């Protein structure tokens, strides 16, 4: 359920977490260390070299599902890219390896006929996510950094928009196989895996939402201003 209130820099980090503990995953991607005491959001951001406007923009979008269109033009696209890059590392270096290890532990010898297929499906999905992220790291993010510096690489964010797949949804098939057909004498372990899969799917959906509703509109606006400036200079 989305919130109706937004947070400001004057609110405490602890109150933010109490509102929705899933925000902890977002804090980890900003590389914010624990030990918040009673510190305000803006103080924690300043201490850790984080763009407070970007932090609040992302947090409030995740919590409320709403975009503050008036503030979008002042959001740093490079800070958004840095956050998304950290998110890629989180998924590939922590989240998915963690799920894979728990999945292996939850599999039972009585299902050795399908266990390899389950692991193979998960590994195939991980490769698909890596390919998706790699394209962003190699093509999209460098383009955005260059655009901010006034350079034109011949790319366009519209190309990314047209080929931006919703990678989180493809975990549904694996979840359904386990839910419908995988009997086990260790249900607690497999339930934990399922919770991880559901959380990962929601997390990836949120990641895609940030790209679709914050990054793409922001870069589209910058591209438009870039073209208008260049056209004005030619006249």
Description of the structure:
This protein is mainly alpha-helical. Helix content is 69%, strand content 0%. The protein is globular and about 65 Å long. The mean pLDDT is 89.
Task: Please give a quick description of this structure.
The protein is mainly α and 235 residues long. The chain is built from 9 helices and no strands.
Task: List the keywords.
mainly alpha, 235 residues, globular
**Low-confidence stretches at least 5 residues in length (pLDDT < 50)?**
none
Oligomer: single chain
Strand content: under 5%
Q: What's the gyration radius in Å? A: 20 Å
How many strands appear in the DSSP assignment?
0
Order of helices and strands: HHHHHHHHH
Spell out the blueprint of helices and strands.
Blueprint: H1 13-19, H2 23-29, H3 41-47, H4 52-64, H5 77-106, H6 115-148, H7 157-162, H8 172-181, H9 187-234
Helix pairs in contact: 5-6, 5-9, 8-9
